[in-house]
Automatic annotation (TrEMBL):
The lineage of its organism: Bacteria, Bacillati, Bacillota, Bacilli, Bacillales. This is Glyoxal reductase. InterPro entries: AKR (IPR020471), AKR5G (IPR044500), Aldo/ket_reductase_CS (IPR018170), NAD(P)_OxRdtase_dom_sf (IPR036812), NADP_OxRdtase_dom (IPR023210). Substrate binds at H112. The active site is at Y54 (proton donor). Keywords: NADP, Oxidoreductase. Residues 31-262 form the NADP-dependent oxidoreductase domain. The record marks K79 as: Lowers pKa of active site Tyr. It comes from Metabacillus indicus (Bacillus indicus). The keyword Ribonucleoprotein does not apply. GO terms for molecular function: oxidoreductase activity, acting on the CH-OH group of donors, NAD or NADP as acceptor. Belongs to the aldo/keto reductase family. Gene3D superfamilies: NADP-dependent oxidoreductase domain.
Amino acid sequence: MAKNLQDTTALHNGVNMPWFGLGVFKVEDGNEVVNSVKWAIEAGYKSIDTAAIYGNEEGVGQAIKESGVSREELFITTKVWNADQGYDSTLKAFDESMKKLGLEYLDLYLVHWPVKGKYKETWKALETLYKEGKVKAIGVSNFQVHHLKDVMEDAEIVPMVNQVEYHPRLTQKELHAFCKENSIQLEAWSPLMQGKLLDDATLTEIAEKHGKSVAQVILRWDLQNGVVTIPKSVKEHRIYDNAAIFDFELTQEDMERIDGLNRDERVGPDPDNFDF
């Protein structure tokens, strides 16, 4: 179990990925993203998660440079967007992302969505980048069990990570079990359900019992479930608060009560039914 903000989980290829990081979805390029990433790094975060479609890779790169922390200490993730999927176009998109980030190598590259008829070719491109040593680990995002099985049928390399929408109202038990069986690390995006869970009565009660906030309880639940998590925030105090989850533990009963909130309810698109 993660004991501090620097703790990592070993992916199936032996690369260490921090359990906790900062997501920058919908964070504006320029000052907003630069500040948010710099605050996170100052707070001790090592992992930063962006994507080509977020339009803020340049700001993330600038913040990394200005942070004064050595590149080797950080774990940087970005993702190939749907319009760029396919073999050659993915390789091109990767070069573009690297130019914007201003990095020599990437820690984790993800296929952002399972675009029908394209994601297998995209995966081949990721395997190439991995073999060339440009990326330390490769994975997918928003893949359901059938998408994973489909990729793995022809893949030389099993995805190391699957980053999906994951929170107490969408516990994804079947997907989580499949990922565990295949040594694929599950990672949560939108762990706080974009704020929709912050006044939930059960979570509030558990939070009061531990003298913690609802957000801290949810993030702790992620970690105790063995799920990597990357909450997003642009406020300095929140970035610090989100990470203050290593000094308490949820009981088995707390964990079960939180699991019981599941409604298979999404705030994001359905991976089996999206058109972008």
